[in-house]
Write a structure and sequence with these properties.
- There is one protein chain.
- 12% of the residues lie in helices and 32% in strands.
- It has three helices and 17 strands.
- A six-stranded mixed β-sheet has the order 7-6-5-4-16-17, covered by helices on one side.
- α1 runs parallel beside α2.
- The longest helix is centred in the N-terminal third of the chain and has 15 residues.
- It is globular, with a radius of gyration of 21 Å.
Length: 276
């Protein structure tokens, strides 16, 4: 006879097999199988606001944006990142030419981990968007670009991570990046990514506004933000959130940064600013 029981660790199922009579004192064996949906120890590299443009140089003559994108991908490879998040504004504008697109594709192809991307305000998904003719998912077998106007969710079952993201269609006050965050999955890490402007009071006239109340209401484990070029982090409710800052030297910040996120079932979410 076979019994299937849970023990104190919800990620473990106990399979009890009994031979002869139903007597758990004789010939009893336990087989432990990890729940594939359970939260696991994982790490994420979060970047945004690279702002690649048509200033594309060859080896030794790369632009600051090129060097920033190369540097942040080098960091993801060195850290053996499980997932690479790009929270908008890969491109400076929606008129970039083929040389810029080729460079972006070449860099994305260097990553062996899954990639999740959204559009920001500079490369938004309006009718004139570059993403209507350029598909970054063609650069690799595990690259995901979120186009759905209402946002979309991508599940990484082997990592126990669920990522919800939403691109900017039109950068305007009516755009609410954290509108329609889906119901959470308690068995996985719930990670969000949006592009917009965080203010802790007022600011109703800003486009793509993000508020503390919205972050708290999301109940996400981690929220990856894009739009602000300086690294910053903050907590609201159970949610840890951060702007990664820009890895590019020409974006107004004194440091070229990214955010390295550790998801640990024992200690929770840790955010570390790294220089690239």
């Amino acid at each position: 006879m076979i019994f299937l029981n849970r023990v104190d660790d919800p990620s473990i199922l106990v399979l009890t097999i009994c031979f002869k009579k139903v007597d758990l004192t004789t010939d009893t064996y336990r087989i432990y199988a990890k729940n594939p949906m359970a939260k696991k120890l994982s790490n994420i590299l979060h970047t945004s606001d690279i702002h690649l443009d048509d200033c594309i140089g060859g080896r030794g003559k790369e632009s600051p944006a090129q060097l920033g994108f190369i540097g942040v991908i080098d960091a993801a490879i060195a850290l053996k990142t499980d997932i690479f998040l790009l929270a908008g504004d890969l491109f400076e504008h929606n008129r970039v030419q083929q040389a810029c697109l080729n460079f972006a594709s070449t860099q994305l192809a260097r990553l062996s981990c899954p990639v999740v991307m959204i559009a920001g305000n500079h490369d938004c998904l309006a009718e004139y968007s570059i993403y209507h003719s350029y598909d970054p998912t063609e650069s690799g077998s595990d690259i995901h670009f979120i186009r759905d106007e209402l946002g979309a969710t991508i599940n990484f079952n082997e990592l126990g991570i669920r990522i919800w993201g939403k691109s900017i269609i039109d950068h305007e006050p009516e755009n609410k990046p954290l509108d329609r965050v889906p119901q959470l999955d308690d068995d996985r890490w719930n990670v969000g990514m949006v592009h917009g402007y965080y203010v802790n009071r007022g600011g109703n006239s800003f486009s793509s506004l993000i508020t503390p109340e919205e972050i708290e209401a999301s109940c996400l484990d981690y929220l990856a933000l894009g739009h602000v070029h300086v690294f910053s982090e903050f907590d609201h409710g159970v949610t840890r959130a951060a702007y990664s800052g820009s890895p590019s030297a020409n974006q107004g910040s004194k440091e070229n940064t990214a955010a390295h996120i550790t998801l640990d079932p024992d200690t929770g979410v840790t955010i570390k600013r790294i220089l690239v």
